[in-house]
């Protein structure tokens, strides 16, 4: 049977070209450049090569690229600290931790530290869970499964109503790609090591996705005539004709299977190039969502960016003045205490003139809020303190990037109180910002310093 090769390299180039144009438009119109950060622990040659490829691909499309290289002897706390720094960096919209990590470092703990708004790899449990819920859109989709679906779409391969078999049930590929196929209205069967009569199950498939991690596992007589075969596997086998002494093969016996299928992805050159391309595609998407409110998420990137611009133009400027003990008695509940640099607690309130306009003091804060009600990324811009970024997570903790000036350490209890009140309100951070600016609530007095 005549078969057609699904060229992942070609499709990846098309995706990168589209992303380059999008990045240029975002920068020209709104001054926003998508940024991605990669954390690499250790000196594994394959991981280092992959990181270089990601960095090169990001440069090709004009994205900001950051990286943090750590020795394999580093502690788990150092890796978590690197993640937190990128969480707090406003120029980084997506964070990727190169796996695997050394045995003494918990992958689950490190990946869990990444803010869901910056989970460019789509590994956060909330993102995976969103795939399983009808009508719920994840903030990011796992890159390799996303690449599989993109290949099928670009080659106009019908998925609705087709029988699809996914061989492999890993959290990284198997389960997400099965859920994505369900979203495309395919009838999906997930196979694994306990599946009985696997060849017979595969023979019934119109679409076969092999992601089991075993070289040439899927044989030619397993595939029915005219099926579409997507080979996700990458395995090394000995080959004396190669300079390296090995060659890469997939989970499918390519030479046998190609005689039976209508479409097939080669290894290498099939799904592999799409993984990095979709990683880059996730970056501006989550970057836009990171800044826009939930209503802008379903709009185009241009509309979402316009929402960001309008929100910034509406930002209020506030002056905070220290209150004496005598003054504090007059304003019960209308002030908050906090510590700067471990000093004594100070109390502040908002001053406005008789016309309701805010005074223009030396220390003026520009307020910009974005995120969700339980997980907020915030930026504070101060004329004399430079730029600081604050993160509020479900745990209620606050992280802040160090400034050149002294005395900018965070008071953790203030962050916990802010997050608690946010959850109690049950509204988005954008709603919180406008509502509490008008009411001059005590929560916003401390939010001025910790959340913007």
Automatic annotation (TrEMBL):
Keywords: Coiled coil, Hydrolase, Multifunctional enzyme, NADP, One-carbon metabolism, Oxidoreductase, Ribonucleoprotein, Ribosomal protein. Pfam families: THF_DHG_CYH, THF_DHG_CYH_C. GO terms for biological process: tetrahydrofolate interconversion; translation. GO terms for cellular component: cytosol; ribonucleoprotein complex; ribosome. Pathway: One-carbon metabolism; tetrahydrofolate interconversion. Residues 301-328 form a coiled coil. Residues 142-283 form the Tetrahydrofolate dehydrogenase/cyclohydrolase NAD(P)-binding domain. One of its GO terms (molecular function) is structural constituent of ribosome. Homodimer. This is Neuropathy target esterase.
């Amino acid at each position: 049977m005549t078969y057609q090769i699904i060229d992942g390299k070609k499709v990846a180039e098309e995706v990168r070209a589209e992303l380059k144009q999008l990045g240029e438009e975002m920068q020209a119109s709104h001054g926003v450049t998508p940024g991605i950060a990669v954390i690499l622990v250790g000196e594994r040659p394959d991981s280092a090569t992959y990181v270089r490829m990601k960095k090169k691909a990001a440069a090709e499309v004009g994205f900001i690229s950051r990286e943090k290289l750590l020795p394999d002897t580093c502690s788990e706390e150092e890796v978590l600290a690197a993640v937190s720094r990128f969480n707090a960096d406003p120029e980084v919209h997506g964070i990727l931790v190169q796996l695997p990590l050394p045995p003494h470092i918990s992958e689950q703990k490190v990946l869990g530290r990444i803010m869901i708004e910056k989970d460019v790899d789509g590994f956060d449990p909330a993102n995976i869970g969103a795939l399983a819920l009808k009508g719920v859109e994840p903030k990011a989709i796992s890159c390799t499964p996303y690449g599989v679906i993109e290949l099928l779409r670009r080659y106009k391969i019908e998925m609705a109503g087709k029988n699809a078999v996914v061989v492999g049930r890993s959290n990284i590929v198997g389960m997400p790609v099965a859920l994505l196929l369900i979203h495309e209205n395919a009838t999906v069967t997930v196979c694994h090591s306990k599946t009985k009569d696997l060849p017979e199950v595969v023979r019934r498939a119109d679409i076969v996705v092999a992601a089991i991690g075993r070289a040439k596992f899927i044989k030619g007589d397993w595939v029915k005539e005219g099926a579409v075969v997507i080979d996700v596997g990458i395995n090394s086998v000995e080959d004396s004709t190669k300079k390296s002494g090995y060659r890469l093969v997939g989970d499918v016996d390519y030479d046998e299977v190609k005689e039976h299928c209508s479409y097939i992805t080669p290894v290498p050159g099939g799904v592999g190039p799409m993984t990095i391309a979709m990683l880059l595609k996730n970056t501006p998407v989550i970057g836009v969502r990171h800044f826009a409110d939930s209503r802008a998420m379903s709009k185009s990137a241009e509309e979402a960016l316009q929402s960001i611009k309008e929100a910034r133009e509406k930002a209020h400027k506030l002056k905070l003045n220290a209150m004496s003990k005598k003054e504090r008695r007059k304003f019960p509940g209308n002030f908050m205490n906090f510590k700067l640099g471990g000093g004594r607690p100070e109390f502040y309130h908002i001053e406005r003139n008789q016309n309701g306009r805010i005074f223009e003091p030396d220390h003026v804060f520009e307020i910009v809020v974005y995120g969700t009600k339980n997980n907020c990324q915030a930026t504070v811009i101060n004329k004399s303190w430079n730029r600081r970024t604050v993160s509020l997570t479900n745990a209620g903790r606050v992280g802040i990037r160090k400034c050149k000036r002294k005395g900018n350490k965070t008071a953790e209890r203030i962050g916990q109180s802010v997050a608690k009140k946010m959850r109690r309100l049950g509204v988005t951070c954008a709603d919180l910002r406008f509502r509490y600016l008008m009411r001059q609530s005590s929560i916003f007095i401390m939010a001025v310093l910790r959340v913007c």
